[in-house]
Amino acid sequence: MVFHADGSTRLMLNRSLFLSNANSAGPSAFGPRGLPIVGNILDVKRLVDETKFYSHAWCRLADIYGPIVGLKLGIAEPLIIVSGKDAVIEMMSRPQFDGRPNGFVHRLRTGGERRGVLFTDGDVWRDQRRFALRTLKEFGFGNGTMEDIILNDAVSLTTTIESLSKSGPITNLYNITSIAVLNSLWTLVAGARFDLENPKLTEILSVVNGIIRNSNVTGGILTHMPFLRYIIPGLTGFTVLNQRLTRMWQFIGSEIARHKQTRTHGEFRDFIDVYLAEMETKQSSSTISSFDEEQLISVVKDLFSAGVETTNNTIGFIITYLIVKQDVQRKVHEEIDRVLGKDLLPRIVYKNRLPYLNATIAEVTRLANVGPTSIPHRAMTDSILLGYEIKKNYSLLANLRSVHMDEQHWGDPKVFRPERFINDEGEFVEDPWLIPFGLGHRKCLGETLARNSVFLFVACLLQKFQFVLPPGHPDLFLDGVDGFTIAPPDISVVAIKRI
């Protein structure tokens, strides 16, 4: 991969950063030298202020220093930014880098210890992940039962949108879709569904959105300099973050308490019931186990956060792009009309017969980069990556955006062109350079659910509606809004009924 930097970027970096092949991130890692104590915090802030996105800043650094960039952010372990397809694939495929960091924020989010499936490693992670996958599959995860659940929520969503559209432009479309997406997952996890007007759900979705929009994959200042929470808890964001995490913990805890009161021994309604039974089995055998109520809350929290946010953002970006690209939306409508007509519901069995819809989803996924980097990895041992020394406990970020926007591979990466995923026979062709769910052992466990949800929700919405902007709406900023993930812009939408 060849990295490029424009003149202004080179000038800015040459003035403010010092290239060193022996900086604090390792004797073989190139990167800005940084300052005492704060390290590269100010350098990163300067780049993010200029580019508006952390992932764009990582690409700028890769332009200057190459595929392996070392940063020292405060007192935390050095952070290695891994860019370019070869480096990203090697890092994510090697078990030496399968760990997760043990920073303050990573512990705070799950009650003060590393718990759950997202930010654990070793035996705890393997046991919890294996149990979660097996149990969710038993309740329909990845099969026809799950498809029926998603379709039911997608059809309900179209009914809601049709009703709301009678009153004019819809101002909260993405909030509405997030409830529908959550219901599909929550049916498996907690055996329940949420009503659109449920005030508790509205509050929790707001809490989750606040956490994700006000954080980033580096962990922020609370990871870089955690002692500051004692000095300036408000300015560091600790006070608000702790309140939001506590509210999320209480919400899931109350759902588990309800299950304890209503469950019947030997009968399993959902994931929580099965987990509670597993806890009892482990405790009665007197064996050391990672299965306890705090772990259950943490696993459900991980499923809740990761399972809803990225899927809903992807759906939101697809609608946003098609509002701007009406010619593409028209082609998708024509294909859906030809294959499904007015009466057939979209189903996975029809997926291969809708190549242009699949290509459009893939192209939005590539350009929007909802998850522009991996969740941070941790080096489990001293290792070498592409000739660079990576010490044990260093954190590593896979810069997926650098792969999705590689000019040598894609040719015109900034251009929205679904046809790049269509071959000469008119068939949809997957590209191995599109890796939104990551690779290796830490690949997203909800990939199948996410792919099916996006396809079914988008197909149902576009079968039913044409989406346009209301008159006088300002031009859209398609880059979205930065945070732990990238969110689509807030917009008003006119949904015109087609059938």
TrEMBL record:
Gene3D superfamilies found in the cross-reference section: Cytochrome P450
A single BP term in Gene Ontology: xenobiotic metabolic process
Gene Ontology CC, one term: endoplasmic reticulum membrane
Molecular function GO labels: heme binding; iron ion binding; oxidoreductase activity, acting on paired donors, with incorporation or reduction of molecular oxygen, reduced flavin or flavoprotein as one donor, and incorporation of one atom of oxygen; steroid hydroxylase activity
Endoplasmic reticulum recorded as keyword: yes
Cofactor(s) this protein requires: heme
InterPro entries the UniProt entry points to: Cyt_P450, Cyt_P450_CS, Cyt_P450_E_grp-I, Cyt_P450_sf, Cytochrome_P450_fam2
Protein family membership: Belongs to the cytochrome P450 family.
Chain's role: May be involved in the metabolism of insect hormones and in the breakdown of synthetic insecticides.
Protein name per UniProt: Methyl farnesoate epoxidase-like
Protein source organism: Temnothorax curvispinosus
Taxon lineage: Eukaryota, Metazoa, Ecdysozoa, Arthropoda, Hexapoda
